[in-house]
Design brief:
The chain is α/β, with parallel strands linked by helices and 218 residues long. 39% of the residues lie in helices and 28% in strands.
Length: 218
Amino acid sequence: MDVLVIENFPKGPVGLFGEYLVRRHGARLNVIGPEQVPDAPVAADLIVTLGSPNGVYEGAPWIVRQRDFLRAAIAADRPVVGICFGAQIIASAIGGEVAPFGRRFAGWVANEEAVSPLWRGPWARWHGDHLTLPPDAEVLARDQGTIQAFQYRRAVATQFHPEADAAILAGWARAVPDWLTENGQDFDRLMADTEANVVGRAAAREALFDELLRRSIG
């Protein structure tokens, strides 16, 4: 399996999802930065686009370029998985809207609404944007007024972070500690929750990754 990974932010790597793809599927990961996104869909078996502190609505040239690339890939029925910013730019590419939500989420949170327990979590969350989707997109999880997962054709996306391990979350928490404070948390609690969920819910995470591939690749 050849996987094109768009790493939109150096502190937002493919993490546990990449480890799973290599271990379970023998994947060859081609990791590129946002400035390296090609003009047209590539021959990869899967396209993965990851998180970023930027907002899709900022309209930087690399954002516009990636949105056009993903729009073409999805129209060509290529398998795509998006995480956080990746979900937001997929939503924009398919005709949805992305805007600041008015609050920022950080920590491990279960989704109030989900199509199955698999999507409920708890999953790590670290975002502050809200999605509006076209009517033909399927919402897979929703919480506190925010869409947390959805599918459109062969594109599947989560605003939550199933790829995030302890090192990734610790890096975010140290960079923007006020996000934790706004959510009534601190670093020690985040790390304790991360240990419990990354280790204790490994089987659930693998099952979610399996489902992402089932819905995208088939």
